Amino acid sequence: MRTRVPVIAMRNATIATSLALATLALPSLVFAQSDALQRAEQAYAQVDFESTLRLATEALTGGQHSRDQTVRIYQLLGIAAAALEQDDRSRDAYLRMLALNPDAQLDQGVAPQFRGPFLEARGFWTSRSDRFDARAVLARQRGALRIDVSDPLNMARTVVVRSRIEGSPTFVESRHPAAARIYAPVRGAREADRVEFNLVVLDEHNNRLLELGSDDDPRVVGRPRVPIGPGREESSSVFASPWFWVATAVLIGGGVVTGIVLADQAGTVGGESEVRIGLE
Question: How far apart are CA 161 and CA 144, in angstroms?
Fold first, then answer.
């Protein structure tokens, strides 16, 4: 009597063969993994996709992961859901994975029948001009950093900003609900030439979605610096430019010549003329 091998077992074996190659393309993690994420990795290695999906979801909702770990969690969710024929859930996970890391790829060895949700997610982002991103400029009149957040999938919940006037010893932290535009107050920003900052965008579980700069390597906004000599620089200013003084001399010289001509013409007809140079 012949024993019939369950279809699901054969399917899992096929998936395992394909996804074993895919793991070669997955980014290595450089941060300590949470317990749930570690167990999700173990379940994935054992080709237990139901456990992988459950544990990766647990890791996501448990929160407190780095950006790279969050990308990895969405990758595990996408693979496991595709293996369980939950294509909508797989596509959603890949959309979020690619939002955080547009360069993420699946290995060429993944079978075509398992690549559909990933290709759909990649096509979604290819068709759009916007991306998940954040940018900051110095808004002096408000005494703040103006932060513009682009979040097409509505993933962000909190923006944490650490800022200081350039040269100050410590950063001051502020937290803001995620929005398309945020003003983060910076003490002394109205008079400052330059402000140093770093920011982190968090999801609803405090997983990191985006990081700009750090305390050790902050971003800088404000007036650009211009070199004034070897090893020296200063903030740019119109009064520091030699072209400003050249133009000023030309204008003043032209005004004097014009005044002399007008005075000479007035003298020839016996009248009086008052010549004024500059602004009153």
Answer: 11
Q: Domain check: are 96 and 192 in the same one?
A: no
Q: Is residue 90 part of a domain?
A: yes
**Domain endpoint, select from 198, 223, 248:** 223
DSSP class of residue 4 equals P
Closest CA to 192 of 218, 222, 163, 224: 222
Q: For residues 186 and 195, what is the distance between their CA atoms, to the nearest angstrom?
A: 8
Report d(CA 48, CA 83) in Å as an integer.
10
In a domain, 77, yes or no: yes
Whether the model pTM is above 0.85: no
Q: What is the pLDDT of residues 107-153, one digit of tens each?
A: 565 667 778 999 999 999 999 999 999 999 999 999 999 999 999 99
The predicted-structure confidence for 70-82, as pLDDT tens digits, reads as follows 999 999 999 999 9
List 221's β-bridge partners, or say none: 195
Cα–Cα distance measured from residue 139 to residue 183, given in angstroms and rounded to the nearest whole number: 8
- Give the side-chain half-sphere CA count within 13 A for 71: 20
User: What is the total count of domains within the chain?
Assistant: 2
Sign of CA dihedral 160, 166, 168, 169: positive
Give the type of residue at 51: S
The label of the residue with tokens 């990308």 reads: 71
Angle between helices 67-83 and 87-100 (to 10 degrees): 160
Rounded CA-CA distance 135/198 in Å is 11
**Which domain range does residue 153 map to?**
133-223
Query: What SS3 class is residue 109?
Result: coil
The residues with which 159 forms a beta bridge, in sequence order, are 176, 201
What DSSP string runs through 27-59? PPP-SPPPHHHHHHHHHHHTT-HHHHHHHHHHH
